[in-house]
Every structure is written in structure tokens, then in C-alpha cells.
Design a protein that fits this description.
single chain; globular; 6-stranded mixed sheet; alpha/beta; 8 strands
Length: about 350
């Protein structure tokens, strides 16, 4: 039994037209400069807008998730360790993907079909256990030997800005504490997308939104500035993305000539400290800072603008290294005693 197409299937042709490209624009030794592919985000969000689905959930939100996942792949993270994946199944453990790649084609096709129909192995969404409750996380980087390394929550707001903003604030802050409480070393992010009509209809709410995005960060309000104090329960990085489109006519019945224009990203009114470039830069640098250099080698090379003389660590090498350190390496077991170990210890030394 094959899996039914999900809401991300409609975005696959768009993603296929945008192969991952180097997102960094700085030189070696210079301050990192990340350049998101805003054109891709506009293309992705144009589809639900023209289909009359520009709501705060569903296809519009999935388009945001697909864009963030694509940006992480641009930064050098593996296609199977970034969820949602560009194709179904959206969540596929990398170890399973490696197994499928090593099997004979006929067997691999059969196993892939069976695995794809097993939600317990390839769920539609990534559900992560936090400190207090399970949380469906929108974008994840995770592997068996590393655990969750990146957890990003996304929210969208295209209308009723002031009415719903407090609820968004409360939900976001609670999710940050829940996830960081169990994974203190993971990079935890929050990206908020708003429609630019807020600038005309509720400019005061836009200012409150910027303030909210800043205050959701770890260490907000403590000495040393925003972003300091990893134990505060806030996010590692937060961002606001402002999008706009012209409503000429609503819904699919409008026809191609009268359909809304394409979605565009506004850069002129979003402060740099809450914009998307700093969001991706902070998260990527955090991940590389808390892992050894043999992990995420390609990510480091792109970030540092140089080739590293190290190879990416794989699970087999890590297991062998751990066994050697623990004295359980199979290669050395033949020299260990095979019989029972007898130790002459007095049972009652004080008698």
C-alpha cells in the first residue's frame, strides 16, 4: 500500500528547479554573510496564495517548512538528515536511507515501498519528546548517533494580527522551554511569517511583533544582551519574514489572468537583527560549535570558506572508536580471559 500524497507534494517540482547552491557570500576569515533564497520562498508561497489557501495553516505553512529545509540543505546538511525531506517520505531515518542505498535495486525498491507505508518508521511529521510533552516540530535535523541537533518551529499570520499575536507569543515561548529542557545543546529556532498588510492596518502590532521576536530568544533581558544565557529557556535564534502579494481576485476560479501576483519578500522594514540571514547564521554556527570537527564537515567547509583535511565521521567509525576506548573492540577480545574471572577478596574482612 503506497502512501497518499501530502501537502508538500505540490512543492516538489518547485524545489527540483532550485538545486542547492552555496548560500554564503563572505570570504575566508570574514564575517559570515548568509544569503537566503527568497525567490524560492516566493515561488513556494505563490502556489497556496493563487489556490486560495493563504491561511495560517495547511499548504501555506508547509511551504515555509519546505523553504527552511531547503536552506539547510544549501548550507551543507544531508538530504536525509533534514526533515521534511524534499520527497516522500518526509521523515526517513538516515540509517534506513543508507541501508536502502546499499541494497540491490530490486530489493531496495521493495523495501522502500514497504518502509514508506509504515508510519512507525517513516512518519508524516517529526514528533519530538520535549521536557514535558510531545511536540510536532516543523523542521528538524537529527540522526541516530547525534540525536536532535536542530529544532525549528514556524508560524504564519496573514490577518487578524493583533487578535492572535498574544497566543502566538505564549505558544512559542512554551515550546522553546519544552524543547530546550530536554535538548540543551540543540539549536532551537522560531521563524514567524507575516503578511505585509500589517504595516497599513496594524502598524502598532508590527512593532509588537518585532519586540516579541527579540524577547523569545535565549538570554533576552539578561546582562550581556540578547542571545546570552543558554539556560534561559528561550530560542537559540528567531526571525521575522514579511511577505506581500496583490489581491486581484481570490481563489482558483479567478483564472490565470486575474490570479494574485506572485508572493514577494519585503526586506526594507524588517530590522537586520530579526531578519532571516542572522537566523540561519546563528543556528548553523551553533550546531558546528557544539559538535566535533569530524561532524558536519561539508557545513563547516562552506561556512569557513576552506577545505578541511578531515573526513566525515560515520556510524561504523564512531562505534569502533567507542569500542576501542571502552576496551570492547572485537579485534582485542581474543586476548582477554575467556573463563570466569576469579578474585580472592575476603568476604568478611572485619572478622
Amino acid at each position: 500500500m503506497s502512501r497518499r500524497p501530502d501537502k508538500l507534494v505540490a512543492y516538489e517540482p518547485v524545489l527540483a528547479r532550485h538545486p542547492p547552491t552555496d548560500p554564503w557570500r563572505h570570504t575566508a576569515g570574514a564575517r559570515p554573510c548568509y544569503t537566503p533564497d527568497y525567490g524560492l520562498l516566493g515561488e513556494l508561497l505563490t502556489q497556496p496564495v493563487r489556490g486560495g489557501e493563504a491561511s495560517e495553516s495547511g499548504a501555506f505553512a508547509k511551504g515555509i517548512d519546505a523553504w527552511i529545509a531547503h536552506e539547510l540543505r544549501r548550507a551543507g546538511f544531508g538530504a536525509d538528515e533534514v526533515w521534511p525531506r524534499a520527497s516522500q517520505p518526509r521523515v526517513l531515518p538516515r540509517d534506513v536511507a543508507v541501508l536502502l542505498d546499499k541494497l540491490p535495486k530490486a530489493l531496495a525498491d521493495e523495501v522502500r515501498a514497504r518502509v514508506g507505508a509504515m508510519p512507525a518508521v517513516t512518519p508524516a511529521d517529526a514528533v519530538i519528546l520535549g521536557r514535558a510533552y510531545d511536540k510536532q516540530v516543523d523542521v528538524v535535523i537529527s540522526r541516530w548517533e547525534r540525536g536532535p541537533e536542530l529544532l525549528i518551529s514556524t508560524k504564519a499570520q496573514v490577518s487578524s494580527f493583533g487578535k492572535n499575536l498574544p497566543n502566538r507569543f505564549e505558544e512559542a515561548y512554551g515550546d522553546a522551554g519544552n524543547l530546550r529542557g530536554r535538548y540543551p545543546l540543540a539549536a532551537v529556532g522560531f521563524l514567524f511569517v507575516q503578511r505585509s498588510t500589517i504595516l497599513d492596518t496594524e502598524p502598532d502590532t508590527f512593532e509588537r511583533t518585532i519586540d516579541m521576536i527579540r524577547k523569545l530568544r535565549a538570554g533576552a533581558g539578561v546582562p550581556g544582551g540578547v542571545g546570552v544565557g543558554a539556560d534561559s529557556g528561550g530560542y537559540t535564534a528567531t526571525a521575522l519574514v514579511l511577505v506581500e502579494w496583490d489581491d486581484i481576485a481570490d481563489g482558483p476560479a479567478a483564472g490565470p489572468a486575474l490570479a494574485p501576483s506572485g508572493v514577494r519578500v519585503r526586506h526594507d522594514v524588517v530590522p537586520a537583527d530579526v531578519a532571516a540571514p542572522q537566523f540561519f547564521t546563528t543556528l548553523i554556527r551553533h550546531i558546528t560549535a557544539v559538535t566535533p570537527v569530524v561532524h558536519h564537515v561539508r557545513v563547516r567547509e562552506l561556512l569557513e570558506r576552506r577545505n578541511l583535511p578531515v573526513a566525515e565521521a560515520d556510524a561504523d567509525a564512531l562505534t569502533a572508536e567507542a569500542n576501542t576506548a571502552a576496551g570492547t573492540d572485537p579485534a582485542t577480545r581474543a586476548t582477554e580471559p575467556t573463563g570466569p574471572l576469579m578474585i580472592d577478596v575476603p568476604l568478611f574482612p572485619d572478622l
